[in-house]
Amino acid sequence: MRKTTILTITVVLAAAVSGCGIGFLGGAPPGVLVTQNPLATITPTPFLPLPPTETPLPAPLSSATPTPLPTSVNPWGDFPGPAEPSAIEIPRPAPEIPFGPDVVNILLLGSDQRPYEGGHRTDTIIVLSLDLEAQTVTMLSIPRDLYVYVPGWRIDRINVADVRGGPQMIKQTILYNFGIPIHRWARINFYGFVTAVDLLGGIDVQITGYLSDNCMHTPLYYTPGTTRHMDGTTALCYVRQRETTGDLDRMRRAQELMRALFDRVVSLDGLSRVPDLYSQFGNLVETDLAVGDILPLVPLATTISGDSAAIRQYAITGDMVTLWRVPSSGASVLLFVQDAVRALLDTAFPY
């Protein structure tokens, strides 16, 4: 497994979230994250500068088990069958999206691994699709508590796939459930994230939603339309807190931080110094991307940095999932609504 740095990854990947413009005509598309001010009248606040659009709240938590469908012979197709029984029926594999030959799909993973700990789960899952021919970048954020089939294991939270079988199992899980083939991946943990932000001299984060919370006995209060300078610890607190919000709002904040990281690299003339940055920074990010993989993508990153209309941001939001409690464990998970998620994928990846 090769190692590289957050800077080289940011050069080619964070371009996907570098602009506040998202490049849609008309109203907000399905999957755009919104958040609300907990101290004020409920008002939808989407990613700037999209016009407001209301996000329906998820359905009330239910303990009823979804009605299973009749099981056909080998319903999981060419993927490995389950090693353990699942609480609900395993769905059939999603049809694979026919991406063109000039598309590179990269999986970004944020691990909750602490120093001196071996186990971890994946708190942040972002698919970045770079289309070198169309000169566009599409980002899709996936909730960590989404209850999906992990090939060779069982239906479980998607954030356990990494610890069950590493990036290869996550790639198979994404392909099975969403039909998205993954070509490259990168993973960063708490320590790597904090260190990378500090080595950059901090980042300026454009806040697009409300947050009122506490981190390490320090109150956090952020309002949309403001820009806040953050060091590594502050940025980690900002993206991870969910005492007063939830995982869906954390996805919005993760996108904000990716944009800020990219902007900071651009301000340091990082797009012209990829090999230097690759060699100068430590082993902060695990990835299968080498310098030779990154350099051909730099022209796209340069284009995206000056053209926010080429950036397309999506997420699986509350109106596309149903809250459900696993009867055997009591765990609260998200079941995705097949038709809603398929419509999102058709919009995000119209190949």
Describe this structure as you would to a colleague.
The protein is an alpha+beta fold. The protein has one domain: Aminopeptidase, CATH 3.40.630.190. 27% of the residues lie in helices and 24% in strands. The chain has nine helices and 18 strands. Strands 1-15-10-5-6-7-16 form a seven-stranded mixed β-sheet, with helices on both faces. The chain has a three-stranded mixed β-sheet with strand order 4-17-18. Strand 8 and strand 9 (154-157) form a beta hairpin. Helix 1 packs across helix 5 (247-267), helix 3 crosses helix 4 (232-240) and helix 4 runs antiparallel to helix 5 (247-267). The longest helix has 21 residues, at 247-267. The radius of gyration is 19 Å and the shape is globular.
List key phrases describing it.
351 residues, Aminopeptidase, 9 helices, globular, disordered N terminus
Layout of helices and strands:
Blueprint: E1 3-4, H1 6-13, E2 34-35, E3 45-46, E4 59-62, E5 103-111, E6 122-131, E7 136-142, E8 147-150, E9 154-157, H2 161-178, E10 184-188, H3 190-199, E11 203-206, E12 211-215, E13 218-222, E14 227-230, H4 232-240, H5 247-267, H6 274-280, E15 285-287, H7 291-294, H8 298-305, E16 311-315, E17 321-325, E18 332-336, H9 338-348
Parallel strand pairs: 4-17, 5-10, 7-16
Antiparallel strand pairs: 1-15, 2-3, 5-6, 6-7, 8-9, 10-15, 11-14, 12-13, 17-18
